[in-house]
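Hello support,

Our group uses your service weekly, and this is the first time we've seen a run hang past the timeout. The protein is 1-deoxy-D-xylulose-5-phosphate synthase. I'm not sure whether the cause is the sequence or the server load. Input pasted verbatim:
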Amino acid sequence: MSRPDTPLLNTVAGPADLKRLDDRQLRRLAQELRAEVISAVSETGGHLGSSLGVVELTVALHAVFNTPMDKLIWDVGHQCYPHKVLTGRRDRIRTLRKKDGLSGFTKRDESEYDPFGAAHSSTSISAALGFTIGRDMGQATGDAIAVIGDGAISAGMAYEALNNAGAEGRRLFVILNDNEMSIAPPVGAMSKYLSQLYANEPLARMKSLAEGFEAALPSPMREGARRARQLVTGLPGAGTLFEELGFDYVGPIDGHDMDQLLPVLRAARAKATGPVLIHCCTVKGKGYVPAEASADKYHGVSSFDIGTGTQAKAKPGAPSYTSVFGTALTEEAARDPRVVAVTAAMPSGTGVNIMADRFPARVFDVGIAEQHGVTFAAGMAASGLRPFCAIYSTFLQRGYDQVVHDVALQGLPVRFAIDRAGLVGADGATHAGAFDVAYLSNLPGLTVMAAADEAELVHMVATAVAHDSGPIAFRFPRGAGTGVALPERGTPLAIGKGRMIRHGEDVAILSLGAHLGECLIAAEALEAEGIGVSVADARFAKPLDIELLLDLARSHRALITVEQGARGGFGAMVLHELAAHGVFDRGLAVRTLTLPDRFIPQAAPAEMYADAGLTAADIADSVRGALRPRGHVVSLKTVS
Ligand SMILES: Cc1ncc(C[n+]2csc(CCOP(=O)(O)OP(=O)(O)O)c2C)c(N)n1
Ligand SMILES: CC(=O)[C@@H](O)[C@H](O)COP(=O)(O)O
Ligand SMILES: [Mg+2]
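Update from on-call engineer: The timeout came from a worker crash unrelated to the input. Re-ran successfully.
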């Protein structure tokens, strides 16, 4: 027995401990949990608003269901901090998103309470249905519960899963966590539809409840539910969209009111025979005034002062690549009315909000819908517009078939502005922009550029505007630029032409993208040892500057390529060309420095690059190794 003044949270080692708490104590626990999350994130930074919005839901789900046997699957996983605290990770919660610390998302190898890893959105219902089938086929797994936000449910995958789950008709729980926010205010017809489900009605009155659950509810709620069905549908027998898809629809309920959450979850758990969707209305940032009051509800924050909510500011310095892109795009849009922009729910993350401020009718937020966003841009390109599809490298993976089938195959001039290229830091491996050079450079007709600094980025925006003959992509990293002077306006680059940065006699370093600075540091160190180093900026992964490449290959003893991307990208393209031109036959030593063939865990970006073997010192080491006599051997540096 704990003393009455002992925080209940101190008595909870795991979800099993919630089973002995009564409803009043669960309410108190939720308050303590909220305070703990605010306190931890004030130190670590992270996705605070989303986590605060699910505090009561987290307590109620763990109190009612039997995790880890029952599989609780958080969509995106960015709201899982309270879940981590309750599932035995409280002692490590202040290591969130740090090197060797807890992930900011759910992760299978972190805990048995994280049955399915995430960070990209809208996967939870599919995964939950998979567990459901596993259960029904005799695997040792209980109920599956997907918790998905109103933003995440805008993505196609979620509907594919609802469609499938509704037809399967198996017992499965989907909790729709509707806080009327994505990262930005949510967009789209579905968002409007969800709002209509509870417009003008107090949440305490549930508008719709399947017959089976009604019977299991306390009587005042039962009566409210019956009346509510008629209110929401207009007809006693008519259903919501979810019901039409085969789900029992329960709600909307107030997702912060334990007196609604607990009985509804208990009733659903006791009675469900098929798929059930429980619609919970929540508030992003709930219970922390600065978060609730801010425009972005503290979706993602740096460390902050709890009293004031003031966040730590980045040191003043060079503008971010994102803002340079947004400004350059806006200036191009001012000159050319055909320039339009597409974002998939990330207007500020991608910088297109800068253009939207000036040309709101020419910026399209499609919601979390990268696949649609790419094909939508392809349609606009086919119509004669000049669309910029601004999507992070990692999220463009979602739209890959659309890039291939709708854009590249038809040679449509969609401009892909690929932010967050390379390693991004605290979000870790799920958000690393590792693969875009590889997955774009292999596509016929696609031009692929990488900016070495923010001035180059301005020129690449101009290059993309002018490029009407086919698709073109340019990539740039997260965070601050190098501080280089920015041009008054961008000048289109010659397609497929790189540039020499410095000349030396012994070895050539050919850099693609924002690791040019590290290459130059390595060159300085090598010069000090008497090794002459040329450094070139390839600018283009495709088409490659063959003339420059062959020139470097012929006039140096070794050639080293460097990129912020995975194997199969720029270095591989270079190797193809060198082989095709018979350069290896003449004994050139080659190294391709890429990210290693493994996922790099979260840390500060510099630490991640150190882990990846891509520091300036690593580049210099590689040069030294390449200059050691080896005969006619092509060696790929392997970092494991
Ligand atoms: C495929 C994909 N696209 C974009 C994102 C970036 N992203 C992360 S959370 C988020 C908003 C999610 O909104 P919602 O599901 O409503 O959750 P909330 O933050 O409101 O709790 C977005 C756009 C992502 N994680 N995955
Ligand atoms: C959870 C998610 O996917 C986003 O919130 C992401 O963390 C944003 O990353 P940036 O901070 O790089 O915009
Ligand atoms: Mg939301």
